[in-house]
From TrEMBL:
Domain of life, source organism: Bacteria
Cellular localization per UniProt: Membrane
Start and end residues of each Virulence factor membrane-bound polymerase C-terminal domain: 328-505
Residues spanning the membrane: 36-53, 60-84, 148-166, 200-218, 291-312, 324-341, 383-401
Gene Ontology CC: membrane
Protein name: O-antigen polymerase
Native source species: Albidiferax ferrireducens (strain ATCC BAA-621 / DSM 15236 / T118) (Rhodoferax ferrireducens)
UniProt keyword list: Membrane, Transmembrane, Transmembrane helix
Residue span(s) of domain Protein glycosylation ligase: 102-127
InterPro entries: O-antigen_ligase-rel_domated (IPR007016), PglL_A (IPR031726), WaaL-like (IPR051533), Wzy_C_2 (IPR021797)
Domain O-antigen ligase-related residue range list: 156-305
Membrane-protein topology: Multi-pass membrane protein
Length: 516
């Protein structure tokens, strides 16, 4: 049965914007580029909360599907414009890319591809809300095949698939195959409608055509660029995921019980001399969620977390779902989890919100777990949700202010706020949230002398756990040498040569090498 369409209210409009806009945010200033996008997603979630506390599952599904579909379509359009080098007039509101690259404002091709597939799942949800077309319909029904109600979803599916193809994301290709599989598994539900099948067929065909035609339209060789080239060439050995995962497995074997500690993978990777091939970059994520949990938290806890998630999934039997809303939630979870086996989308705000909303939809839309049992607390829900939203907004405002202060160190003097153009270290002594970024700036901008060698040495040792990059390591080696700690200097020099055989330290730049 189709869901009723409810008149939008101010709260629902704000919730829609709060869910949609973080996907379109083009700004990610240094020194830690993920901070501003994450704060934007957190602010968007806060704006959603008052409406979310009042919304019924059908309303939440409609709003989420609408927002995801809209931002996926806009991002696919922006991605195609980027691919053909036509976004110059849209800067700074649209990220710039090289010719033949597409990722909209998500800054990574795999994240962009995942969004296009989430949009496709949302499109299927909307199609499942309409009446099922009879196989023996009359002439009017048959003539509507060429009407806008049919052509608009087909055009949307084609645009999403072309955006996916333009990304050249192998993850995006596998996700499209996953959605095709899910549509086949859920064959006894609303997804069985002819409209859904037509959209699926158009999406697959558009993706296949786009993978071949898009590079040709740029005059590029199919064997040198595009999806077909990426499938044939793969990654360089030292940058491949197989090398990365091999290093992570070696690190897990070193500390299997308790792991290296949360956020310590980059330090563990630097400090370890591997017996075989080494991943040739700073490694701050295992690019596989189970492996990342195991290397940082230890095998027992990782197995417990992953095992619990798997048990809950098997218990829920998602392959038997008949309800389109729950199918949408399972689809989004499946897309993000598949992506999480190859990268780390759950480290980014919009994907965290999408993952959480999907879990919320599964819980709220389950009859045995109906929230009606919590009626005594219903009058307090709007008040509590508004209070939490206000607290989150206050935190976001403070964090943005604090980050803006610390970021002054990473700008040239003429680009800084006037108050910080001269001697910024004397004016910003501490930061509650971004102390590591502040200490990194101090280390990399302070000349090493005999008088400050001990202080900078300890600072460099601490910052190895934050960002073990050449500027930190070289300052550590030089300070240890100046202090007469020659064995320690040699210890770190060997690891520096192994991790960065061709690197030389430079001046402080606008961003850190560390990504998350």
């Amino acid at each position: 049965m189709p869901h009723a369409i409810h008149r939008p209210t101010l709260l629902s409009a704000l919730a829609f914007l709060g869910l949609a806009l973080p996907w379109l945010n083009p700004f990610s200033p240094g020194p830690t580029p993920n901070v501003v996008p994450w704060l934007a997603a957190l602010a968007g979630f806060a704006v959603m909360l008052p409406w979310l506390a009042r919304a019924r599952p059908a309303q939440l599904a409609a709003l989420a599907a609408s927002a995801w579909l809209l931002v996926a379509l806009l991002s696919a359009l922006l991605g195609l414009l980027q691919y053909f080098g036509a976004t110059g007039a849209l800067e700074p509101w649209v990220n710039s890319t090289n010719l033949g690259e597409a990722y909209a404002n998500l800054r990574q091709r795999n994240q962009f591809a995942t969004l296009t597939n989430i949009g496709l799942a949302a499109l299927w949800w909307w199609l499942a809300q309409g009446p099922v077309t009879s196989a023996t319909g009359d002439g009017a029904a048959r003539s509507s095949f060429l009407g806008w109600r049919t052509l608009a979803p087909l055009a949307a599916a084609a645009l999403l698939a072309l955006g996916n193809a333009a990304s050249s994301s192998r993850t995006g290709m596998v996700q499209l195959l996953l959605l095709t599989l899910l549509a086949g598994v859920w064959r006894t539900s609303g997804w069985r409608q002819p409209a859904v099948r037509r959209v699926l067929l158009v999406a697959v065909l558009a993706y296949a055509v786009g993978a071949v035609v898009l590079p040709l339209l740029l005059g590029q060789d199919l064997h040198a660029s595009g999806m077909l080239a990426r499938l044939q060439q793969g990654d360089p050995h030292c940058a491949s995921r197989l090398t990365l995962w091999g290093n992570v497995l070696h690190l897990i074997a070193q500390r299997p019980v308790f792991g290296w500690g949360w956020g310590e993978l980059d330090y563990a990777h630097f400090i370890t001399l591997y017996p075989g091939r080494r991943f040739c970059d700073i490694l701050d994520n295992a690019h596989n969620l189970p492996l990342h949990l195991a290397v940082e938290l230890g095998l027992p806890l990782a197995l417990a977390l992953c095992g619990t998630g798997l048990w809950l999934t098997l218990r829920a039997k998602p392959w038997r779902e008949l309800d389109a809303t729950r199918q949408l939630a399972w689809s989004v979870l499946a897309l993000i989890l598949l992506h999480s086996l190859l990268e780390y989308p759950l480290w980014y705000g919009p994907f965290q919100v999408a993952f959480g909303l999907s879990l919320w939809l599964l819980w709220r839309h389950a009859a045995p777990l109906s929230p009606q049992s919590f009626k005594p607390f219903k009058p307090l829900t709007p008040v509590l949700s508004s209070l939490v939203a206000i607290l989150i907004i206050v935190f976001v405002a403070y964090a943005a202010w604090d980050y803006q202060r610390v970021s002054q160190f990473y700008l040239s003097p003429k680009m800084r706020a006037e108050a910080y153009r001269a001697q910024p270290l004397a004016k910003i002594q501490s930061s509650w949230l971004f102390q590591d970024q502040l200490r990194f700036a101090e280390l990399t901008t302070t000349p090493l002398t005999a008088a400050n060698a001990a202080h900078l040495h300890q600072l460099a040792l601490d910052l190895l756990h934050f960002s073990p990059e050449p500027r930190v390591i070289e300052k550590l080696i030089d300070s240890a040498t100046l202090l007469g700690r020659l064995e320690e200097a040699q210890f770190y020099r060997l690891r520096y040569q192994a991790a960065f055989p061709d690197s030389r330290a430079g001046g402080t730049s606008g961003t850190l090498t560390r990504q998350n």
